Amino acid sequence: MKTYIFMYDNFAQFEVILTNYLASAAGEVITVGIDDSVVTSMEQFKMIPHKILSDINVDDVDLFVIPGGDPDNINKKQELYDFIQKLNDKEKLIGAICYAPIHLARAGILKGKKFTTSMPVDEYKEFEDAHFVNQNVVVDGNIITGKGVGYIDFAIEIGKLLDIYENEAELMDTINFFKHQKI
Questions:
Q1: Which of 23, 32, 33, 25 has the alpha carbon at shortest distance from 3?
Q2: 173: number of CA atoms within 13 Å, CB side?
Q3: 98, 104, 105, 155: which is the annotated catalytic residue?
C-alpha cells in the first residue's frame, strides 16, 4: 500500500501529520512535490519531497493526499490537475483537506460529488457543480475531503478506508487516544 502526500510551499503540515502516521500502518508513505525544490510548510519546516509528481506512476498510488494551505501556491498547476484526473479515472483514493478541495474542483472531479472544505464555497465558482456538506469529513466514493479543524477525523476516516484497524475496539482506541486524549 502506497500513500503519497503532496507538499508545496506554505502547506499546512499539521493537517496531514496524523494521516501520515496512520497511513504508515498500511504501508509506505511518500512525499511528493511538483519538483524537487525545498518546500517550507506553514509551520516553517523545510523539507525536500521524496519524489516529483512527473515520476509517479498512477497505478502505484493507493491514496493521494493534498493538505491545506494557500491554494495560490499551487494554483493553475495543470500537471497536478491532470494527475488528479488520472487518479480519479482509476478510482484511486484522493484526500484533500481545508482549502485543498479547490484543487479537486479545478481538476473537475467534484462535479456531482459531496464534499467539505474550510473555504467559503459561495465565493468560488469552481464549487458550483458540487454539493457542499457542512461536516468535518465527507467521503463520496473515492474522494475524502475534510475541514482543517477536522484533521483528526480526516485521518481516522482515511485509516478506515485503508483498513488499518483490526477491529472496532482498535478503531475506538484510536479515536479515544487522538480525539479524546484517553488512554
A1: 23
A2: 9
A3: 98
In the annotation, is 83 catalytic?
A: no
Q: What is the pLDDT along the chain (183 residues), one digit of tens a residue?
A: 999 999 999 999 999 999 999 999 999 999 999 999 999 999 999 999 999 999 999 999 999 999 999 888 886 789 999 999 999 999 999 999 999 999 999 999 999 999 999 999 999 999 999 999 999 999 999 999 999 999 999 999 999 999 999 999 999 999 999 988 887
Task: Report the alpha-carbon distance of residue 106 to residue 96 in Å, rounded.
Answer: 13
Show the cell assigned to 92: 484511486
Residue closest to 15 by CA, chosen among 69, 52, 53? 69
Q: How far is CA 64 from CA 30, 86, 167, 174, in A?
A: 10, 11, 25, 22
Q: Which is nearest to 83 in space by CA: 112, 53, 113, 60?
A: 53
How many residues are there in the chain? 183
pTM exceeds 0.85: yes
Beta pairing partners, 3: 29, 63
